[in-house]
Amino acid sequence: MRREQLNLLRERRARRVRARIRAGKDQPRLSVFRSNSHLYAQLINDQDGKTLVSASTLELKKEKSTKTEKASLLGEILATKAKKANIDQVIFDRSRYQYHGRIKALAESLRKSGIKI
């Protein structure tokens, strides 16, 4: 498959997931982006089109740990930032990624920290 076709399939998959999500001020959307080496997460208010809280694994110190462990730490960091912004419930937007590995570790870490997904 050519690169354009792969990107089109990825975009379709992301739209399919996002079509079921309706986020507002009370419940922002937790958007996740996964690169080969890092994980980025942000809480977005879709009504205003603004990012409320963001975090990434770049904020972590240079630790020797696996990507999944870093995703769990990212969940804890994001939960503390969300609590400071008075956010306790979010809608999880996994985008085009399957719910396993780093994405699952992030979501479970947020749940342990008291954020409802």
What does this structure look like?
The structure is a single chain. The chain is an alpha+beta fold and 117 residues long. It has a single domain, classed as Nucleotidyltransferase, domain 5, CATH 3.30.420.100. It is built from three helices and four strands; from the N terminus they run αβββαβα. The chain has helices spanning 3-18, 67-84, 102-112; strands at 29-34, 39-45, 50-56, 91-93. Helix 2 (67-84) runs parallel beside helix 3. It is globular and about 45 Å long.
CATH topology heading: Nucleotidyltransferase, domain 5
- Summarize the biggest pleated sheet: 4 strands, mixed
The structural domain count equals 1
Structural class: alpha+beta
Morphology: globular
Mean pLDDT: 90
How much strand content do the residues show? 15-25%
The first-level CATH class is given as: Alpha Beta
Q: Distance N terminus to C terminus?
A: 36 Å
